[in-house]
Design goal:
The protein has 117 residues and is mainly α. It has a domain of 81 residues. It contains five helices and two strands, in the order ββααααα. β1 and β2 form a beta hairpin. α2 runs antiparallel to α4. The protein is elongated.
Length: 117
Amino acid sequence: MFKLVNGEPVEMTADEVAEFEASRVPPPPTLDDYRRAVDSHVDAVAQSRGYNNAVALASYFNSTVPDWAAEAGAFVPWRDAVWSQVFDALATWQGGGEAPESPAALVASLPAIEWPS
């Protein structure tokens, strides 16, 4: 591998090549990366039913409109189950266990919501 020095190609040392290759590997996901992915997923599930976000949907839990209350009634326990599973997985990781493969893999492992008919 070569680098340019004063416009001329110069062969890189093994250490320089290793440093360059290491710089091309993305850093491992952080705890915040996992949390943001799950937050986005939970919001996307709420948005799939026409709500602005998870908070908006959850706010209809005691709605006087039966359909909205039913959707919130399905969503809130699902959201709780999702976050319980996520917190368990992340606690295992923080306790020295393996991290979830990626934020996307963690989201893919989460339960699906069952909406009311």
